[in-house]
Amino acid sequence: MSKTILVTGGLGYIGSHTVVELQAAGYDVVVIDNLNNSSQEVKTRIEEISGQSFELTVADVNDNAALEELFAKYNFEGVIHFAAHKAVGESVDYPVMYYQNNVSGLISLLGVMEKHAVSNLIFSSSCTVYGETKNPPVTEQTPIQKAESPYGTSKILCEEIITDYAKHKDFKSILLRYFNPVGAHPSSKIGELPLGVPNNLVPYITQTAAGIREQLTVFGDDYNTEDGTCIRDYIHVLDLAKAHVKALSYCDKMAERVDVFNVGTGNGNTVLEVIRAFETVNNLKLNYKIGPRRGGDIEKIFAETTKVNDVLGWTAQYDIKDMMQHAWAWQQGLGE
Hints:
Layout: E1 4-8, H1 13-24, E2 28-33, H2 41-50, E3 55-58, H3 64-73, E4 78-81, H4 88-93, H5 95-115, E5 120-126, H6 150-166, E6 172-178, E7 180-182, H7 201-209, E8 216-219, E9 231-232, E10 234-236, H8 237-251, E11 258-263, E12 269-270, H9 271-282, E13 288-291, H10 306-311, H11 320-334
């Protein structure tokens, strides 16, 4: 008998790829998504890739009645919680919206999980919890810093809430601290689809290359890095999705109530290196300019991945060129 998993935000960028991987691993999947940053068409595309259907509830994770209905209907083996706002820059402009959605949404979810005795939670956290680090790579033991943005603060608060909750409950949670997910499914059927102007680098690159955006602005070239632009650890979204499936199976055998894993490649790339990789692999030139620094951005961060490699048995399979090739193929398919 297959196990049923609830995926919150399952039609979003990372969520949709994870649903594909969960189905490939033999899980039954139920999705709740408010379509804030996705569309119903994503469901059809996921089902085309996997050859399997799944139930979708269009509702918000702050909607307790919708959650109650789902938990009453299904005997969930666990929950993978993606539903959250995720843009650093936007969070600086709209902090209350971020706390309302990200923190209150988690609290609603935990309340319903407790009522229905569902004990396994994979939480979508972020490397932003480390703040401005002096000496990357960061390990899971790197101290949590005061966040540079409300988005980062919301993830820190959620991690603390989960840790406090787990102390006195029959409950296990894995906190996956993502680095920078990019790319798209190799089928080009699903990928990153921001509504409105993108807040993240790669969709802005692909939209500029496609002529949707006139020009890409690189925010700052005076950082203490090789070429003056920020360094991030870019990870293919499909590699990240596979890490969630590994984490879910590890929940059953972990000794701790809560465990933490960095999920990245372990390599840092500057913004200009990403642009050059995109230009090289896709044989085109990108219209970009250097602009001032952006509020909330940190200078450089990339992951130490020994723990996730050894304990979960997961390693990244795709490199930055694969990421840029798949991202561009996805963007081109959107115009068809």
